[in-house]
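Mods, move this if it's the wrong board.
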Amino acid sequence: MAILPLVHTPNPVLRRKTKLVKTVDRRIRKLVDDMIETMHDAQGVGLAANQVGVSLRVAVIQLPGDDKAMVLINPKVMRMEGEREMDGEGCLSVPGFRGAVKRAEKIRVRALDINGKEFRVRAADDLLAQALEHETDHLDGVLYLDRLVSEDSIWEERPPEPEAESGEGHE
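Not the wrong board. Structure tokens:
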């Protein structure tokens, strides 16, 4: 496995619709393994193949507390319902920024797993729903920046302030 270099905006690969995977073979499995390792290294929740410069319809998602990553090959959004505002969405391809975005309340996605077997996943009002929409958006060339509530609903992340010493024990 290898940690792959992340692609950042404004790289045009992020704006192109990705191509369908024809066969889930050894090459695709290696890409998936490398993407999972890259996502873990970057402390992300999800990663789309075009975020590592590969224009194929492949994404991985691993929520905090989950034992293993969900692999989505050729994911297709079957249905989205409702709308909710999410505060503080970020992206590994847009480092250092967060924004308030509009996302669906419910989403249903069909995809292939790592063995090429079709499965369906539904999510509602949670991080999985947000991640499914975020990653499938990536594969369609859409960034979370395109879903901002307003132009001024993006902000720069600030690194955490170092904790001040309490002064106890000092004279």
